[in-house]
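Action item from last week, closing it out:
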Amino acid sequence: MTTRSLRETATVVRDPLYYSCIGNMTWLPTPLKGFTDAVPEIKECLRVCAFHLYGWACEHRDFKIHSERVRSGAVPLGYPEDWPTPERPALPNGTAPYSERVKFSITKRKAKLRRQLADETLEHYGHDAVREVLAFWKVDLTD
């Protein structure tokens, strides 16, 4: 990893709007999670997959080059044959369905966030920062 890419990674993980890496947005077996943080080729594959599944590419200023490459349709070397591409809409093997269990977990998490935001005794919670991030990502806590 170059000094530039180390610097890029450091700025994006410190930005509350982009705190989570793309690997944290996928369910992976625990032994593989370390690779998603440390191996650039795996990160690139996950970025491409996320774009084709969700239409999402990181908009952080330090990831402009990565995002442009992802949006161009470029598929990195080693990208799994059964993952989505511009020509191949597909769900990766083992993708969990959007089920009632997932919906329940989302509802439960939103309720917890509402309670935390309402609790002014949580002095180190960062109420304003949490509200800013939720607004940026257009997360509605009312449902």
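Closing note: The CA atoms of residues 8 and 41 lie 15 Å apart.
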